[in-house]
Design brief:
Blueprint: H1 3-13, H2 25-35, E1 41-46, E2 52-59, E3 63-69, H3 77-89, H4 97-102, E4 103-108, H5 113-118, H6 139-151, E5 155-161, E6 166-168, E7 177-180, H7 192-209, E8 216-218, H8 228-234, E9 239-244, H9 254-273, E10 290-292, E11 294-302, E12 305-316, E13 319-330, E14 336-342, E15 364-367, E16 370-373
Parallel strand pairs: 3-4, 3-5, 5-9, 7-8, 11-14
Antiparallel strand pairs: 1-2, 2-4, 6-10, 7-9, 11-12, 12-13, 15-16
Length: 377
């Protein structure tokens, strides 16, 4: 499918009721209710705090794809793109009918509704669900396991979001979208089903390079059977980790949302049209591995050295706000920044007019009696 066709589909089907970073059951429930006459929406279980976990199927094809998002509650970009995708598949647009005919998607839009509401990675029992695949101590983990066993997917899409710190390799390129074909054994053997996942990732990467050249990365495939992706891969089901990352000045992750949507449609189009054998996996091996080389802001050449600042994502009155916090004061020539401020040897003061120090939280800094905002407008 042509990229311009996919971008047009996105614009026509973007779910306008979902935006920015805070996405909870309260946000998706009205959307689900409006789709209820077109989809069979189920409650497939409950969270620790007894909030419902929803799922739905779409499509009628033999190729089964299981997707789950917000296993980590504060990673919502892939959820927004799920509803953009759902609107597209329900639109009767001729360009996606082949996907519906060849594939059946089983979608869990928010696996961790308690974490989503609290805007935390963990669930209400303070457990990382992506480290609970073996012990299965949490109700949400059991819900996903039951869905996997009942649906018997041919492909799994493990949907996440990543921090702004990641670069695609060692270049000054933010890893805006990242992928992984997880390992399924300690030796990280490139098994047949890993090759299938790698081939699909290669196709998505080829499409994304036209939009964000050099800004796609892959994660280290060190094996951890406690992770859901590694567990499902070890059951010989090709599994793909998606990570929605940072695009320039896109802290609301709306551009990244479009890029994830492009990835969804590109991959489903490929799966629908092909018997994915894994023979064409080698391009995956050329995608650069993520490095942690970015800070949100670097104030360079201050009187005390370089000052590295990271934004703290904080939930305030049901809205995610970004609070700049001084993370490093040292020589940061090996790091990149999403925003750079040149201090030219000046002293940098915090909002109280005192010399800046690690741990300070400031919306602006003062240099030469001038207030300088740390937040991009």
């Amino acid at each position: 499918m042509q990229l311009e066709t996919i971008k047009s589909l996105y614009l026509n089907n973007k779910e306008s009721r979902l935006s920015h970073r805070y996405i909870t059951n309260n946000h998706i429930k009205p959307v689900l209710d409006s789709l209820n006459n077109q989809l069979n929406i189920e409650c497939i279980g409950q969270s620790v705090l007894k909030d419902d976990i929803y799922a739905f199927k779409i499509g009628k094809g033999d190729k089964r794809i299981l997707m789950w998002s917000q296993m980590h509650g504060n990673e919502s970009t892939t959820t927004k793109a799920i509803f953009d995708l759902t609107n597209t598949l329900l639109s009767n647009d001729a360009s996606v009918k082949h996907i519906l005919e060849a594939c059946t998607l089983y979608v869990i839009p928010i696996l961790n509704p308690d974490g989503a509401k609290a805007y935390t990675r963990i669930n209400a029992n303070e457990v990382d669900l992506n480290r609970d695949a073996q012990n299965l101590t949490q109700p949400e983990s059991l819900v996903l396991k039951a869905a996997f066993e009942a649906f018997k997917p041919h492909y799994c899409y493990n949907l996440h979001g990543q921090r702004t710190i990641f670069s695609a390799g060692r270049a000054e390129k933010s890893a805006t979208v990242s992928f992984l074909s997880p390992a399924q054994d300690q030796e990280c053997t490139i098994t047949p089903n890993r090759k299938v996942a790698m081939e699909i990732i290669s196709v998505m990467n080829e499409a994304l390079q036209k939009e964000i050249p050099g800004q796609v990365g892959v994660y280290d495939d060190a094996f951890n059977l406690n992770c859901v992706g590694d567990t499902f891969q070890s059951k010989n089901v090709p599994t793909i980790l998606f990570e929605a990352g940072h695009f320039h000045d896109d802290y609301g992750r709306e551009k990244t949302r479009e890029l994830i949507y492009i990835s969804y449609i590109t991959s489903f189009d490929y799966i629908a049209k092909n018997n994915v054998s894994g023979d064409n996996y080698e391009a995956y091996l050329e995608i650069p591995e993520n490095e942690k080389l970015f800070l949100d802001v670097i104030i360079r050449n201050a009187s005390i050295g370089d000052i590295g600042i990271m934004f703290q994502e904080t939930l305030v009155d049901d809205e995610v706000v970004f609070i700049p916090k001084v993370d490093k004061i040292e020589d940061l020539k090996e790091f990149y920044a999403h925003k750079t401020i040149q201090a030219n040897g000046l002293e940098v003061l915090n909002e109280s007019g005192k010399p800046i120090k690690i741990g300070d939280e400031n919306v602006f800094v003062i240099m030469n009696n001038e207030k300088i905002s740390l937040i991009s407008k």
